[in-house]
Design goal:
alpha+beta, DNA-binding transcription factor activity, DNA binding, XRE family transcriptional regulator, 13 strands, 434 Repressor (Amino-terminal Domain), DNA-binding, 6-stranded mixed β-sheet, TransReg_Diox_bact_type, about 45% helix, Beta-Lactamase, Arc Repressor Mutant, subunit A
C-alpha cells in the first residue's frame, strides 16, 4: 500500500499540533513558515512539500507521511470488517478501499459510523424481540431512549490508545521525573515506592490476609484507613507495579481526568475503563522507565527474557512495555502486543503499527500465537504475511498466572509480540531467519470472515458474501462468488 499523497495530510497535521497544545502561529514559527501558509496546509488548500515535511519531523518528532500511512491501513481494515459484517461480497476490492481511505478518509469514517449505528439498532431489536417472546426473562433490555453506544467501551479505549500510537507521553514524562528528581532509584524501586506512598500520601502498604483475598484481586486500597493491601504471592516486579498504579490514582488524578476527556472516549464506561488503563500505563512506565528501558532494549536487541531478568519483571510485562516505546525523537521498534487464551479470546491488544485485530470472525488459526499453547514455555517465532502483502515477525510464548493453593485454578495465556518485517533485523529473534525470502512467510489473515484467502485449508467458514460448495473429495470449503 503506497504512502498517502502529501496533499491530504492537513487534518492529521492539525490533530498533531492540537495534541501538543500548539497554536498555528506557534507551530508556524518553529517550522519557519507563515501562519497563513500553515493554515492552508491544514485545510488541504496547499500541498505539504518535502521540505516542510522534514521540518515537521524535526520539530514534532513524527514522520507525518508514515503516520498517515498507518492510519490509512487501520481505516482499510475497519472498512473491510464492516463490509464483511454487512454481508457485502468480494466485489469491493482492496484497491477500492485503499482509494477511499487515501483520498476520502472522512467519508470512510462516516461509513463506519453508519455501520456501527446499524449494528447497534440490530442488537437492540434482537434484545427487544427476546423480551417479546419470553426469552429475555431475567435480563435488562437495551434502552430505546438515547440509543446504544456505537462502540463497546473497550473498543473506545482501544481506539484511544491507537490514536496515540500506544504512547502516552504525559505519563511517561511523569514517571521519569520521579527518577530525575531523585524520588526513586531504579535499583530500589520497591523501597522507594513504599516511601513515596507513606511520606507523600499517608498510605501504608501491607500484605492482604488470606481471608481478604478474592479471585483476581491484586490490590485493595481503603481510603478511610489509608491502607494499601497487596495480594500475597506477588513477586517484586508485581508489587512495584501495583504500588505504582495506586500512586497514579493518588498523585496524578488531575492528569488522568484530563486524558480521559478525549473525544474518542464518548461514554462514561469507556472513560472509567480508560482511567484504569492509563494508571496501568503509568505503573509500567515507573517500573520500566522509558530512557533506561529503551537503552537496555536496544543494547540487548530486544531479548525479552534478558530484559525481564535485568528489570525483575515477567515476560508479559516486558512485551507490554515494548509496545509503548514511541516517544517522538527517541522511538523503539513499533510493536504489536496481544494476549489470547486457549479459546482464542483476545484479552489484551495494543499496537503502535497499522496491524489490525479483527472484531468479527475470530483470528487466524495459522498464527503462531496459538501454536504456543502446544509448546508451553518455549519462545516461538514466525514470519507471517497478511493478504495486503505486509509481512511481520511474530514472537510468541505462554505465561501462567496462578493464585491460591492446591486446586486453585490457574490462567494460561499466549503472549504475542510482532513488528513489521523491515524492523525485524533489530531483534535477536531474527537470527537464522531469511527475512528476504518471500517463501518463508506463513500466509495468515485477520479472521476468516474478512480474510481474502479463498484457498486456505484452515478456513472455519467462507468469507462474507460468498456461498459454499462442499467438495467431498477435498473435504473442505470451496468458496464461489454468490450467484
Amino acid at each position: 500500500m503506497g504512502v498517502k499523497s502529501p496533499a491530504f495530510l492537513g487534518e492529521r497535521l492539525r490533530h498533531l499540533r492540537e495534541d501538543r497544545g500548539l497554536s498555528q502561529a506557534a507551530l508556524a514559527r518553529r517550522l519557519g513558515i507563515s501562519a497563513s501558509y500553515l493554515n492552508q496546509i491544514e485545510r488541504d488548500q496547499r500541498p505539504l512539500s518535502a521540505a516542510v515535511a522534514l521540518r515537521i519531523n524535526a520539530v514534532l518528532g513524527v514522520d507525518l507521511r508514515v503516520v498517515s500511512h498507518e492510519e490509512e491501513g487501520r481505516l482499510i481494515a475497519d472498512l473491510r470488517e464492516a463490509l464483511a459484517d454487512a454481508g457485502v461480497g468480494p466485489e469491493i476490492t482492496t484497491a477500492d478501499l485503499q482509494d477511499l481511505a487515501s483520498t476520502r478518509p472522512a467519508l470512510g469514517q462516516a461509513l463506519l459510523a453508519l455501520h456501527r449505528r446499524a449494528r447497534a439498532a440490530t442488537e437492540r431489536a434482537e434484545v427487544l424481540s427476546a423480551w417479546g417472546d419470553g426469552r429475555g426473562e431475567g435480563t435488562v433490555p437495551l434502552p430505546l431512549a438515547g440509543g446504544a453506544p456505537l462502540l463497546m467501551p473497550y473498543d473506545e479505549v482501544r481506539d484511544f490508545f491507537y490514536d496515540r500510537h500506544n504512547h502516552i507521553a504525559e505519563l511517561d514524562d511523569a514517571a521519569e521525573r520521579l527518577y530525575l528528581d531523585g524520588r526513586l532509584v531504579l535499583e530500589a524501586r520497591s523501597v522507594g515506592l513504599e516511601r513515596l506512598l507513606r511520606d507523600d500520601h499517608g498510605v501504608r502498604v501491607r500484605p492482604l490476609d488470606a481471608a481478604e483475598v478474592a479471585p483476581g484481586l491484586l490490590r485493595r486500597f481503603d481510603p478511610a484507613s489509608r491502607v494499601l493491601g497487596l495480594a500475597p504471592g506477588l513477586n517484586e516486579g508485581q508489587r512495584q507495579f501495583q504500588m505504582a498504579a495506586q500512586l497514579a490514582f493518588l498523585e496524578h488524578a488531575g492528569l488522568l481526568a484530563r486524558l480521559i476527556e478525549a473525544p474518542l472516549l464518548g461514554s462514561a464506561p469507556a472513560r472509567a475503563l480508560a482511567r484504569i488503563g492509563l494508571a496501568a500505563y503509568f505503573a509500567g512506565a515507573v517500573v520500566l522507565p522509558y530512557g533506561a528501558f529503551l537503552e537496555a532494549a536496544e543494547r540487548l536487541r530486544y531479548d525479552i527474557e534478558l530484559l525481564g531478568e535485568a528489570f525483575g519483571v515477567g515476560f508479559e510485562t516486558v512485551c507490554h512495555r515494548l509496545s509503548t516505546l514511541q516517544r517522538p525523537g527517541a522511538p523503539g521498534v513499533p510493536f504489536i502486543f496481544v494476549r489470547v487464551d486457549r479459546a482464542g479470546n483476545i484479552s489484551k491488544r495494543q499496537s503502535a503499527t497499522d496491524f489490525h485485530f479483527s472484531r468479527v470472525g475470530g483470528t487466524c488459526p495459522l498464527w503462531t500465537v496459538y501454536e504456543a499453547f502446544a509448546q508451553p514455555g518455549r519462545v516461538l517465532t514466525q514470519i507471517a504475511r497478511m493478504p495486503d502483502g505486509r509481512a511481520y515477525l511474530w514472537i510468541a510464548r505462554t505465561v501462567t498466572h496462578r493464585q491460591g493453593g492446591f486446586r486453585a485454578p490457574g490462567k494460561t495465556f499466549a503472549i504475542g509480540l510482532g513488528c513489521d518485517l523491515h524492523q525485524a533485523g533489530r531483534l535477536v529473534y531474527a537470527r537464522g531467519l531469511d527475512l528476504g525470502d518471500p517463501e518463508v512467510a506463513t500466509p495468515i489473515g485477520a479472521g476468516c470472515k474478512v480474510c481474502e484467502r479463498a484457498d486456505c485449508p484452515q478456513r472455519a467458514f467462507p468469507p462474507a458474501g460468498r456461498t459454499v460448495l462442499v467438495d467431498e473429495n477435498r473435504r473442505r470449503f470451496e468458496p464461489y462468488a454468490a450467484l
